[in-house]
Amino acid sequence: MPEIIFSCDVEDPRPDESYPKRYPEIIEGLLTRLEVLDIKGTFFFVGKVAKADPELVKKTAALGHEIGFHSMYHKPLTTQSTTEFEEETRAGKQLLEDISATQVVGYRAPIFSLTRQSLWAVDILKELGFEYSSSVLPAGSPLFGLPGAPFTPFRWHNGLLELPAPLASIGGAKIPYLGGVYFRYLPNRLIRFFLGKTPQNQCLWTYCHPHDFDTKQPFYRMKETALWISWLLWLNRKRTFSKYEDLLKTSPAISFAPPFSEQLHSGKFDLIPCLPVTSFT
C-alpha cells in the first residue's frame, strides 16, 4: 500500500460556548492511539484553539508530531480581506511557534477555501515563511474547490509548494475520500480500492477533525447549513478511530515534515514547476 500522510485539523466545532468543550479530550485520545501505532502526523491547529489550550499544542509537538496552521478563527479565505488574512496569519503562525517551540511551515485553509477568488493568499503565505500548503481541492465542490488544478504536488509561481487533496471518482464526482464525512461513511474496502488505483505521483493525506471521532458530542445544527447536513455530519462517528487504525496499520503513515519533505528532494515526486495563479483566473 502507498504511504499516507496522517493529518488532523484541530478545530472547535461548537456553535457557541454554552456547549461542552470536547476537542481536548478527543485529541488526547487520538495522540494516545497514534503513539501505540508509532505514527507521527501533522496537526493543523486553529489559532483560537491553540490560544485557549496551549498545553495541547505543546503535548502534540513533544510527541514528535508536526504543528501546522489552520487559520486563526476558521473563516474561509473568501470571506477575508488581504489585510485581515495577513495580520491573522502572521499572528497565528507566531503564536504556534511560541507555544510549540518549533518552526511552523505548513498551512491548510479552512474548508479547502483556496479558490479562484482567494488566490491572493498564495503570495502572503510565502512572504510569511510558509513552505507548503494543503489547501486546494482540485475539483468542483458544493462548498469550495479549484477545478483545473493539478491532482499531483505542484509549486505556485513563488515557489510555495501545494499538496492538493487526494481525490477518488464515484459516479463521475470527484471526492476527497481520505477525510471528513467521506471517510466516515465509505467502507474501508472501497477506500483501499481507491488507494490501489492511486497514481504514483499523487500525494496521499488524511484530514480528520476532533468531531469525526466524538461519539458523545450533543447534536446541534451547524451554522449556515441545512438541517439534513447537520445530521449527516453528526452521525456515523463510532468507528472512525478503528477505521483509521485499520488503514494505517497496513499503510506506512508519515507527516508532512521529514521523511516526506526529504522525498520531495529525492525525485520521488515529479513536481509541476511554478504554476502561475493566472492559470485559474
Description:
It contains eleven helices and twelve strands. With 281 residues, it is an alpha/beta fold. It has a single domain, classed as Alpha-Beta Barrel (TIM Barrel), CATH 3.20.20.370. The strands form four sheets. Strands 5-6-8-7-12 form a five-stranded mixed β-sheet, covered by helices on one side. The chain is globular and about 45 Å long. The mean pLDDT is 90.
Mean pLDDT across residues: 90
Secondary structure tally, helices:
11
Low-pLDDT residue intervals, each spanning 5 or more residues: none
Structural class, by secondary structure, is alpha/beta
Reported by name, the CATH topology is TIM Barrel
Order of strands side by side in the largest beta sheet?
5-6-8-7-12
CATH superfamily label:
Glycoside hydrolase/deacetylase
Counting structural domains, the number is 1
CATH architecture title: Alpha-Beta Barrel
Helical percentage: 25-40%
Evaluate the radius of gyration: 18 Å
Assign an overall shape.
globular
Largest sheet: 5 strands, mixed
Estimate the strand proportion.
5-15%
Specify the CATH class: Alpha Beta
Query: Based on DSSP secondary structure assignment, what is the total number of beta strands?
Result: 12
Write the element-wise H/E pattern from the N-terminal end onward: EEHEHHEHEHEEEEEHHHHHEHE
Determine the N-to-C terminus distance: 37 Å
